[in-house]
Amino acid sequence: MILDDRDMVECPITNKKIHFSEFKQVSLPKVVVNCNHCGTKVSLTPRNLSINGLGYVCSECLNFVAFKFNGHFYQPRTVMNLKWNKDMKRRGIQIGDELVFTECKTKKDNFILRILNMIAKEENLGFLTPNLEVHKGALLIDRKKEKYIGYIFWHWKKFKGESSVKPVLNQIFVVEDERRKGYGTKMIKTWVENIIEGRSFVVEEPGIEALKILVKLGYAEVNGEKVIGKKCSFW
Ligand SMILES: [Zn+2]
């Protein structure tokens, strides 16, 4: 509202001037949660919203105190519980008894992909953020342990001089405590065989771990000090 020099406000309906102190103060309910890392009280207001918009961050320790999805607040552990997105297990490709690899198709799937990508970026700032209008993701779930193990994301690109689009693998990520168990290999193998249906593909800036996986699966080979793509090429 706009006050005049005597702190009076003109009512838009009656055009009568009244002093602003006669307006009733209405306060909106504020949601406050305790940071379970450091105990600080954090209000779920725009000031504490994370830059990526996924949720609210404790100003003291930068821990996420709540995620915001579809206008609702959720405890981080609720969102990361498989029950929050329970049909994901049913929709995916079964790998053995324990694992399910599911393409991200729903808003919830993509929300989880973005959270896991945020964890990946905390370790490696150079990691790309998926642009969900371009990139497609898939999540690996362990149904026995009831947890998300990792993800990959890719996009389809038409290269110069080629008539059709080619899949480009952009990123592989496995959560820290599940590494060196062959999950990256399982994701790539399932992606190649089931999702891109055996096409040759491009890998964007593969790191050492990715190159090892590609060699192990026979998609690339070691030639002296170099790794040469067979089924894949590098970008
Ligand atoms: Zn905190």
Write the layout of secondary structure elements.
Layout: E1 8-10, E2 17-19, E3 32-34, E4 41-43, E5 55-57, E6 64-69, E7 72-74, H1 76-79, H2 88-91, E8 93-95, E9 99-103, H3 107-123, E10 136-142, E11 147-157, E12 166-174, H4 183-195, E13 201-203, H5 208-216, E14 220-223, E15 226-229, E16 232-234
Parallel strand pairs: 12-13, 13-16
Antiparallel strand pairs: 1-2, 3-4, 5-6, 6-7, 8-9, 9-10, 10-11, 11-12, 14-15
The chain binds zinc ion.
Give a brief description.
The protein is an alpha+beta fold and 235 residues long. The protein has helices at residues 76-79, 88-91, 107-123, 183-195, 208-216, and strands spanning 8-10, 17-19, 32-34, 41-43, 55-57, 64-69, 72-74, 93-95, 99-103, 136-142, 147-157, 166-174, 201-203, 220-223, 226-229, 232-234.
Task: Characterise this structure.
With 235 residues, the protein is α+β, with helices and mostly antiparallel strands. The protein is 20% helix and 31% strand. The protein has helices at 76-79, 88-91, 107-123, 183-195, 208-216, and strands spanning 8-10, 17-19, 32-34, 41-43, 55-57, 64-69, 72-74, 93-95, 99-103, 136-142, 147-157, 166-174, 201-203, 220-223, 226-229, 232-234. It has a seven-stranded mixed β-sheet with strand order 8-9-10-11-12-13-16, with helices on both faces. Strands 5-6-7 form a three-stranded antiparallel β-sheet. Strands 1-2 form a two-stranded antiparallel ribbon. The model has no long low-confidence stretch (mean pLDDT 91). Bound molecules: zinc ion.
